[in-house]
Specification:
Order of helices and strands: EHEHEHEEHEEHEHHEHHHHH
Mean pLDDT: 90
Number of domains: 2
Largest sheet: 9 strands, mixed
CATH topology of the largest domain: Spore Coat Polysaccharide Biosynthesis Protein SpsA, Chain A
Number of helices: 12
Distance between the termini: 61 Å
Structural class: alpha/beta
CATH superfamily of the largest domain: Spore Coat Polysaccharide Biosynthesis Protein SpsA, Chain A
Helix content: 40-55%
Low-confidence stretches: 221-227
Length: 328
C-alpha cells in the first residue's frame, strides 16, 4: 500500500449498533482510495463492538485497524490514542455515533492538497436520533466552501469562536498533535479544542462551511460517567475558559477576549433558557468561572446574578422575550 495520507480515526465505547452506521458512511469512500485507511480504538467496550468491527475488517481487508484498551481510559485519552494509533499524515476524527456525507473524504484530501494546514474543521448538520433525516433542511449554499487562516489567532478573530465543540470533523496533522501534549487536557471533554488551539498558535488552519458531517442528536450517552460532574453540560464552556491559561501563549489579546466572551455568553444563555440545566452545582460553577475569568468581569457578574435570581423570575423573563419575538 502507498504512503497513507489520511486515516479516519474512530474512538468508540459501547456503541456496537451506532458504529455500523459510522462505518457504512466511511468504508465506501475509503475502500477505493489507496492512501486512506481507518483506525478504531475501543475504550474497553462491554458490548459487541469487537465482533462488529471484525465483520467490517473481513469485508474490507487491510483497510481497518482495531485496538482495544484493557480498561476505560476516559474520553480525552481515547481520542489521543486514536490519533497516535493512526498511520496517516492526517487524521479525520469521527465519533462512533456520527457519520460522513458522501465525498467527505475526497473533499478533505482536496483541501489538504491545496493547503498545508495543521488542522481542518469540517462543517456539520444535526440529524435525528436514528440518522434517518436532518433536523433542518439546508436552505442556502455558503458563499464560500471554506476559508484558510494563517494561524489560530486569525481563525478566532475571523470566526469569532472557539474551534468546534463537536469532535467529529476535526482533521489534524498527526505529528503536530503528538507534539502538542493532548494529555495535558485528559480530564476535560474538550481535548480537541484545547489541543488544536495549542497546535495552531503559529500554524495555519482551514474552516470548511460545507456540512460533511452528520451529527446524531438526542443520543443515549454510552459512557454514564461522561457528564457525571458538578457542572453537567456547562463543562463544555467552562473547561475551554479554564484551558486558555495553558494555550494562550502566542495568541493575540483580541483573540483571547473573543474566546472568553464567546464561552461566557453561551453560559449566560443556557442559564436563562434551560431552566438551570438540570442538577448543576451552581456554587461550583460560580467558583470555577471566577477562578478562570476574574471576579469583576462583566460576564462573571451577570452569571453570579443569574444564579441567585429565583427560577420563576427567569421563566417570566423568558416568557416575555418569547412573546415580544412572536409579536415582532
Amino acid at each position: 500500500m502507498d504512503t497513507i495520507k489520511l486515516t479516519v480515526g474512530i474512538p468508540t465505547y459501547n456503541r456496537c449498533d451506532e458504529i455500523k452506521q459510522a462505518l457504512d458512511s466511511v468504508m465506501p469512500q475509503v475502500s477505493i482510495l489507496d492512501d486512506v485507511d481507518v483506525v478504531i480504538v475501543d475504550n474497553a467496550s462491554a458490548d459487541r463492538t469487537a465482533e462488529v468491527v471484525r465483520e467490517y475488517q473481513d469485508r474490507f481487508s487491510g483497510k481497518i485497524s482495531y485496538c482495544r484498551n484493557t480498561e476505560n481510559i476516559g474520553f480525552a485519552a481515547n481520542v489521543d490514542a486514536v490519533v497516535k494509533a493512526a498511520r496517516g499524515e492526517y487524521v479525520l476524527i469521527l465519533s462512533d455515533d456520527d457519520a460522513l456525507e458522501h465525498e467527505a473524504v475526497r473533499y478533505v484530501l482536496d483541501v489538504l492538497s491545496m493547503h498545508r494546514v495543521t488542522a481542518l474543521f469540517l462543517g456539520w448538520a444535526a440529524w435525528n436520533r436514528d440518522m434517518s433525516a436532518p433536523l433542518q433542511r439546508q436552505t442556502s449554499v455558503p458563499d464560500v466552501s471554506g476559508r484558510a487562516y494563517a494561524n489560530g489567532s486569525e481563525y478566532v478573530v475571523g470566526e469569532r469562536a472557539f474551534p468546534p465543540g463537536l469532535i467529529s470533523g476535526y482533521v489534524v496533522n498527526r505529528s503536530a498533535w503528538a507534539d502538542a501534549g493532548a494529555l495535558d487536557f485528559r480530564e476535560t471533554l474538550v481535548v480537541q479544542i484545547l489541543t488544536v488551539l495549542r497546535m495552531a498558535k503559529d500554524s495555519p488552519v482551514y474552516a470548511s462551511y460545507i456540512p460533511y458531517v452528520r451529527y446524531r442528536t438526542e443520543n443515549e450517552v454510552s459512557d454514564k460517567t461522561f457528564y457525571r460532574n458538578s457542572l453537567c453540560l456547562f463543562r463544555h464552556r467552562v473547561e475551554p475558559i479554564e484551558g486558555l491559561a495553558r494555550v494562550c501563549a502566542g495568541y493575540s489579546s483580541e483573540a483571547l477576549r473573543l474566546l472568553r466572551r464567546n464561552a461566557m455568553r453561551t453560559i449566560i444563555y443556557h442559564l436563562v433558557v434551560d431552566e438551570r440545566c438540570g442538577n448543576v452545582d451552581f456554587k461550583e460553577l460560580e467558583r470555577r468561572i471566577i477562578a478562570a475569568n476574574g471576579r469583576f468581569n462583566v460576564h462573571t457578574l451577570i452569571v453570579s446574578a443569574l444564579i441567585r435570581v429565583p427560577l420563576f423570575v427567569l421563566n417570566l423573563c423568558k416568557w416575555g422575550f418569547d412573546c415580544s419575538r412572536k409579536l415582532g
